[in-house]
Amino acid sequence: MIIQKATVGDVIVFEFRQKNHTMTQSSFSKPCTATSGGFDTGFLPVPQNQTSSFPIKTFVVEKTDPYWMYCAQATHCQEGMVFAINPGNNFSSFQENALALAAPSTMTTVTSTVTVENAGQTVTVTVTSQSSPTGSNSTTASDASSSSANLSKNGAKALVVDGSTVSVLVSVLALMLGTVM
């Protein structure tokens, strides 16, 4: 949202509706970071069933230079919930700066291989874990050794699927080989 051509002394009235939002002053270069000493309404929770008497906060324009603001709730700013007073032609760039702070939308894949050797027995397990910014995760495990029967018997695959780190693999492999971690 934009207010163009606000003059010194103008009063901007913010009415807060359902949910829990803020109006927090920031800067053009750091759209989702509060400006020290800047305007900040704080969080104003409004229940879903409230239909009147919404909280109101006012802001008095003290200069004709741009004011940059955002909602400090969770990732609202990074999702584009920003506001400007007198932005000129820079509002789109300001909003793009905020959107650029969002978590990457690509899937992250990490593959780890652990090999444990003990008393002539070698076990190699490879784990591939994928996660996305939406929180969905998947983990798969495979063993590259001849110990697949032992691996399944000792529950390594189940533990690997439930776990997510190499330390889980090392612990499972160490148990399988009879060493103490």
Describe this structure in words.
By secondary structure, this protein is an alpha+beta fold. It has two domains: 2-99, Cupredoxins -  blue copper proteins (Immunoglobulin-like, Sandwich); 108-177. Helix content is 19%, strand content 32%. It is built from four helices and eleven strands; from the N terminus they run E-E-E-E-E-E-E-E-H-E-E-E-H-H-H. It has helices at residues 91-99, 148-153, 156-162, 166-177, and strands at residues 2-3, 11-15, 19-21, 24-26, 44-46, 56-60, 67-70, 82-85, 108-118, 121-131, 137-143. A four-stranded mixed sheet has the order 1-8-7-4, covered by helices on one side. The longest helix is centred in the last third of the chain and has 12 residues, at 166-177. It is elongated, with a radius of gyration of 27 Å. The N and C termini lie far apart (58 Å). The relative contact order is 0.13. The model is unreliable at 143-181 (pLDDT under 50). Keywords: Membrane, Transmembrane, Transmembrane helix.
Q: Which properties best describe this structure?
A:
19% helix, Phytocyanin domain-containing protein, 181 residues, alpha+beta, membrane, disordered C terminus, Immunoglobulin-like
